[in-house]
Every structure is written in C-alpha cells, then in structure tokens.
Amino acid sequence: MGKYQIIAATGCATGIAHTYMAQEALEQSAKKLGVTIKVETHGQTGVDDPLTQAEIDGASGVIVASDIDVDADRFAGKKLIRVPVAQGIREPDKLVDRILNDKSVPVYKSQAVKEKAKSDSGTSKSGSSLWNSIYVSLMNGVSHMLPLVVAGGVLVAVSFFWGINSADPKSSEYNYLAYLLNTIGSTTMNLMVPVLCAYIAEAISKRSGLVVGFATGMIAFNTGTGFLGAIVGGYLAGYTIILLQHILKPLPDKQFRGLKAIFLYPVLGVLISGMIMYFISLPMKDLNTGMMTFLKGMENTSPILLGLIIGVMAASDFGGPINKAAYLTGTALLAQGNFYFMAGVSAACIAPPLATGFAVLFNPKAYSSNERSAGYVNFLLGSTHITEGAIPFAAKNPLLNIPSFMVGSAIAAILTYVTRIQVPAPHGGFIILPLVIHPFLWVLWIVIGALVSGVLLAIVAGRQAKKHAVADNAGSFDVLTGETTATPETPVKKAPATMDKTFDPGEILALQNIELEVTAADQDAVLKYLAETAVKNGLADDASRVLAKYQKREAEGSTGMQDGIAIPHAQDATIHHSAMLIVKLAQPVAWQTFDQKPVDTIISFLIPENDSGAHLKYLSNTAKLLTHPEFVSQLRNAKSKQAILQLIKAG
After folding, report:
1. What is the pLDDT of residue 499?
2. Spatial distance between the Cα atoms of 27 and 9, rounded to a whole number of angstroms
3. I want to staple 414 with a disulfide (CB 3.0 to 4.6 A). Which of 30, 307, 524, 532 is the partner?
4. Which residue, 465, 484, 509, sits at the end of a domain?
5. Could you confirm whether 12 is annotated as catalytic?
6. Which of 102, 121, 140 is the last residue of a domain?
7. pLDDT at 406 over 90
8. Does the residue 537 lie in any domain?
9. Whether residue 323 sits in one domain with residue 401
10. Residue 129, CB half-sphere, CA atoms under 13 Å: how many?
11. Facing residues of 66 across strands?
12. Which one of 7, 8, 12, 334 is the catalytic residue?
C-alpha cells in the first residue's frame, strides 16, 4: 500500500520489547477503527519498515511513541503526537483517536524553524518539553550502549570458565584463550562511557553532537568519571553544539555549511566541551567513586537494605531510567571485579516478567486471553533477563501492580545478597547459569520472589475483575468501543465525538427487537433470553450456539459498562446479519461493571461470521453515544419501545 492515513515510529532504550509492543498496539488500534497505518520500528537490529517520503507526504498525522531519538524533522508540516513508548502500549486507542479527530494536535515544525521562532519571540522551551528532550536523549545513549555492555560482559564472564584469575598472566590459573576473551570483552565494555556520552549528544544535536560526544566521552573515561561522567558529558557536548549553532548563525549556511560541519563545530565543540569535562572531572570522579563505594559497602553492612533498594529501583519503571540506574551501577561495579552487586540487580530484573506468568496461572479467569498469552511468553522473556514483558501488566493498574512487582524483586535481590551469590555477566538471565556462583540457589530465590509477586498480582486482578471489564485486545470485536481499551484504573471514557452516520446503530435496530420489563434471575438468564429472542425474531438459526458465543465473550472479559448498562455481543455463522437487541429488565442483575453497579439495560449486538468489520463501527458509534450523559439519561428514562427506537435512530 502506497498511502497510509496514519504513520508512526516506535522505539525504546533496549530495542527489544517496548518497541514492538507499541507497534502492535498502534496497529491493532488503527485496525479497530478501520484506518490504515504504517509503523516504523527502531529496534536493536536497526530501523525496520522505514517510512518513505511519499508515505510521510500522504499521511494525515504522525504518532511517535519512543524513548529514543527519532528524526522528527522529516515530519515537518504534519500533525504530530510525541509520547514515551510506554504510553503507546497503554493508550494506543487514545493516540489514534487524537491524531484523527483532535484539532488541537500541533503541526510539527522542523528544528530550524523552531529555533528561528524561538529567537524571534525570545521564548524558550517549556519545562515539560525540556524534560522530554533530556529523557529521550538519555534513553538514546543507553540503547546504543547496552549491546556493547552485554557483548563485552558475556565475553568477560566466559573467560572465567578457566578460573577467576585465568586472564592474569601472573596467576597459576592463566590460560591464553581466557586472557584473549577477557581482553576483548574488557575493551568492548570500556566503550560504554564514550558511546553513552556520544549518543546522548547525538540525540540533542545530531551528527556534530555525536563527534564531540565521543571525544568528551573518552575524556570522561580516561579521567575515571565513569558513567556519571558519560551522562554529564553527553549533555555538555550536545548543548555545546547547540550554543555554537546559535553563535555561528550569522555565517550564511550557503557559503559556510561545510566549514561549520567539518571544522568549526568539531574543533570548537571538542575544545569547549573537553576543557569543561577536564575541569569537572575531579569532583565527578569523587562522586562516581563515592557512589560505587557506598553501594559496594552496603553489601557487607546491610544486604537486606541494599536488596530492598535494588528491588524497588528495578521494578519501578521496567527498563526506564530508574531501572537503568541500578543496571548501569551494577555494570560499572562488574567492570571493577565486583560480581555480587550485579547478581541482585539481575535477580530483581528477572522476577517481574516471571511473576506475570505465575499470576495468569494462579488466576486465569481474571485475565483476558491476550494477557494470558503474554504471561506465558514472559516465562521465556524473564528467563533471558528481559524485564519489559511486565510493562503491560504494570500499566494496567500501576498503583497496585507496580508495588506488587517491587515486593517480589526486593525479595529476590535480598536473598541473593544475603547468600553472597556472584554473577559475572551483565545480561543473559538463566542462559549464563554455568557462570553463576551457586546457580540453583540463585534461580530458587528468583522464583520465590516471582511467586510472591505472582500471588499479589493474581489477587489484585481478581478483585479488579469484579469491578471492571477485562478488555480483550486481540484485534477483534472484543474491545467494546473499538477505540479505547478499558483498564482497571481507567474505565472506558472518551471525549464526545461525532457519530459516523454510515454505521448508524439505528439502521440495525427494529421495534420488534426491543423488549421491556423482562424478568431474569441472573446474567446467564439474560444471555439465554437474548439468544432465544434472536432466533424467535428470525435473526439467527441456533439459540444454543448464539448463547455459547455470548458466554464465551463474557468469560474472556465482562461486557458490563457503567450506569446500569451492558453491551453483550455474539458473532456466529448462524447469525444472518448485523442486528441490535435492546432489553430493559424488571429488576437489575449482577454484572461486572466499571462502577460496580448491577445492570438493568442491555444493548446487544448480533454479528455474522463475516461482516468486513462493520460491527466495529456499530459498536464504536454506540459507545460514543454512551459517553453523553444526556443520552444515557434519556435511554434510562424511556418507557416505551417507540421512545427507545427514536432515541437510537436520532443518535
């Protein structure tokens, strides 16, 4: 397809999980709304499905859900929403709806245009945009640094197969192959500081920043300021180039563009940034050394407190800056020969995804089919030290689920530190077990922590399932609105929108399909009544099959909404065409709803097996109507079939 209504780009610091989760979420949301989308992913292997200029020109809007730098200047002149990658996972429907319908979404201006406007107006970036720039640039540095850390760390760890001192020529354990692996791995890990520094700067000021960032990063490495120096140096290099661009702006680009890029920016940038880095290297080195010494000392004085701190940090943002702070500290200590600290960090990072797998095993009915599948996959992700698989579960109910993850991670880290387990590699999960000191004990502590978190998650999910619908985002009609997935902490609520009259619910509602004062003992009785009414009114052929589809849908996630309304629906080959049934009960029945209230008004959809997605529009338009309090009030107060039919047709 040559033209897409929406284009998007996703990326995360590790480029492993978040990137593709956000891609899938955005694609499914667009599919539910019947719009075309192309998503460019910035993963660990590079950019997949890159956007062409023709695709950019033909799109009506752009969504960038990324924690790393994505070149946005190519989107100049387009409506653009830029959010963290986690928001792309949590709120894809909201983002797609905004880019299509929200007229307040700003049109993106290139950096050059923004700089000119900023100088003309004398204003500067807002605090929020500055913070976003700082965050994105940090994640850009981390994402480029991590593969080097993993590659170097694993090679160093493998060198220990021949003995802990096998790379030392003076030791009796000396082995040339071990020495070679250790040298290659150590050299690779030493690139951590300059690469982190360079790509922080690159996110701020592009290629010129990259050059100055590498030089400043090498100065940070040589002066012993560590990764803290790399972070400070990255921002120093990046904003030094921004300053030079401003100072040298009077020189016309047409004549001096090459001179600026090849000579002035790198020479002046390295000079200024390098001198400042040398000037601050002593206090930075002291700070870096002090932090390392403090954390290292805590292993001997209070492993319990250290494990608690590391567990909370690792499970706070699942790959974000707080998690990465613990990870980078462990990596830096690892390079100094400290294998204890990383053992606890790894344990705390592995436990959360495993916990989601245990949670869906303990309480499968509390999770949608998609969530159950994700939980099972997380057993594999967690075993390989990929924490990001826990994000969708954390995002679903952060106030309760994130503390649940923290408890398990802290337990795993504390037990690891108390038993003095050593892990000489910065990544790999259970793949590196042959290198771990006391490997089986380490796995046991991680599993215990994951089990505790899993039990807590299952309890929370069970209680929330009684309050709210568990929306199945499998990309079918199971999402009631077709626009916004319900989460336990946020019921489906959308801003009022204009209904698409080409899919007017009134078209599929007939007077004979409205029933009042119906008596039903419980939810199952209501569903049975709906199935039998469908056959009686000639809308379907087999009541038992329709009932089974109703029940299957409810098992996957309640269709109860709020204000006493539920929207059960069934899709089956025995259903003739799309149709709506509306039933008002004489007495309300228990139903899982957002507001925990029973249901007395049922709006049901009957869907043929192949309807080309039309039901999504009918469901979406009906859900839009239900966001208007006046419509809900009129529906509840309507006393006759004619009044209900007229209300639905009027929309």
Report:
1. 44
2. 11
3. 307
4. 465
5. yes
6. 121
7. yes
8. yes
9. yes
10. 8
11. 11
12. 12
Number of domains into which the chain is organized: 3
486: Cβ contacts below 8 Å, ≥ 6 apart: 468, 469, 470, 471, 480, 492, 594
Q: Are 533 and 513 a contacting pair, CB within 8 Å?
A: yes
Q: Distance between CA atoms of 384 and 428, rounded to whole angstroms?
A: 5
Kindly state the percentage of the chain with pLDDT values over 70.
Answer: 75
| Judgement on whether residues 325 and 458 belong to the same structural domain of the protein | yes
The answer, yes or no, to whether residue 444 has pLDDT greater than 90, is yes
Residues 320 and 454 in one domain: yes
In angstroms, the CA 229 to CA 197 distance is 8
Q: What is the C-alpha to C-alpha distance for residues 380 and 370, in angstroms, rounded to an integer?
A: 16
* Residue 259: Cβ within 10 Å count: 12
pLDDT at 210: 92
Residues 444 and 364 in one domain: yes
Residue-level pLDDT at 613: 56
CA atoms within 13 A on the CB side of 523: 19
Residue 607 resides in a domain: yes
- Listed in sequence order, the DSSP H helices in 34-162 are 53-58, 85-90, 92-101, 111-121, 127-159
In a domain, 312, yes or no: yes
Token pair 């929020």: residue: 128
CB atoms within 10 A of CB 187: 12
Residue written as token pair 């089956």: 572
Give the mean model confidence (pLDDT) for residues 282-289.
Answer: 73
Q: Residue range 492-516: average pLDDT? A: 63
Per-residue confidence (pLDDT) for residue 489, from 0 to 100: 35
Query: Whole-angstrom Cα distance, residue 20 to residue 451?
Result: 27
Residues 553 and 638 in one domain: yes
Q: How many whole angstroms separate alpha carbon 188 and alpha carbon 47?
A: 23
88-92, 94-98, 624-628: segment of lowest average pLDDT: 624-628
Distance CA 136, CA 38 (A): 22
Q: Are residues 633 and 520 in the same domain?
A: yes
Q: Where residue 12 sits, what CATH number does that domain have?
A: 3.40.50.2300
- C-alpha–C-alpha distance, residues 311 and 298, integer Å: 14
pTM for the predicted model, two decimal places: 0.48
Q: Which domain holds residue 377?
A: 302-465
Residues 506 and 644 in one domain: yes
Strand partners, 38: 7
pLDDT in tens, 555-565: 766 777 777 88
CATH number at residue 560: 3.40.930.10
Query: Tokens 């790198």 appear where?
Result: 266
- pLDDT above 80 (res 534): yes
Is 195 part of any domain? no
pLDDT higher than 80, residue 113: no
